[in-house]
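Re: [ENG-882] Designed sequences occasionally contain unexpected residues at chain ends

Forwarding the minimal case from QA. Structure tokens:
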């Protein structure tokens, strides 16, 4: 059963055209390609950061975007979690506050991931009182993943989340991501600029 269905077209002012048609179930789907090939734009349009010119995007049978029906669900209502290469943690908040920021005010009825369970899976319990500036790149990325998960997403979009990490940390973060997807059964789209981690 498909969870996320993406079928849209978009013409950029440069003349470049995206024509996208794919379906995602409860697993990781990888998108790879050279810089400028439209990978990040695909995620931005699924997340609602940009709008395609035409087409449709569905998540768990909910229409997120459909041009002919003039449906374009706002970002905060899409239930799509985005994990960026730059973790984008709030520097003035400690790890616990960064994580709990995702919990407050989402207003969704679906059962939310348990805070302690998320911290245990990602092994960040010992980081809760620390601030982002004192964390390593791998620790920051684990906290960012935890914050995204605590927002109760129905799909995860990951835009080069391993690009700034060394090989050892890449393997570690990949293991954490695999555990999360298995634990919470969340479909994920993983953006890479090459095939090295797509297998």
């Amino acid at each position: 059963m498909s969870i996320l269905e993406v079928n849209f077209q978009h013409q950029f002012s440069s003349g470049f055209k995206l024509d996208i048609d794919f379906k995602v179930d409860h697993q990781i789907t990888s998108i790879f390609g050279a810089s400028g090939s439209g990978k990040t734009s695909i995620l931005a349009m699924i997340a609602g950061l940009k709008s395609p010119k035409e087409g449709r995007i569905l998540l768990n049978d909910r229409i997120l975007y459909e041009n002919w029906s003039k449906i374009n669900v706002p970002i905060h209502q899409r239930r799509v979690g985005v994990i960026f290469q730059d973790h984008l943690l709030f520097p003035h908040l400690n790890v616990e506050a960064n994580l709990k920021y995702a919990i407050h005010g989402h207003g969704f009825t679906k059962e939310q991931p348990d805070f302690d369970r998320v911290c245990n899976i990602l092994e960040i319990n010992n980081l809760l009182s620390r601030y982002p500036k004192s964390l390593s790149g791998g620790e920051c990325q684990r906290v960012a993943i935890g914050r995204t998960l605590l927002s109760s997403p129905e799909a995860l979009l990951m835009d080069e989340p391993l690009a700034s990490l060394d090989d050892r940390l890449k393997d570690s973060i990949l293991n954490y991501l695999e555990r999360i997807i298995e634990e919470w059964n969340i479909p994920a789209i993983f953006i890479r600029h090459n095939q090295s981690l797509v297998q």
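QA comment: On inspection the terminal residues look reasonable. The helical segments are 39-47, 95-101, 115-122, 137-149, 167-184. Proposing we downgrade this to a documentation issue.
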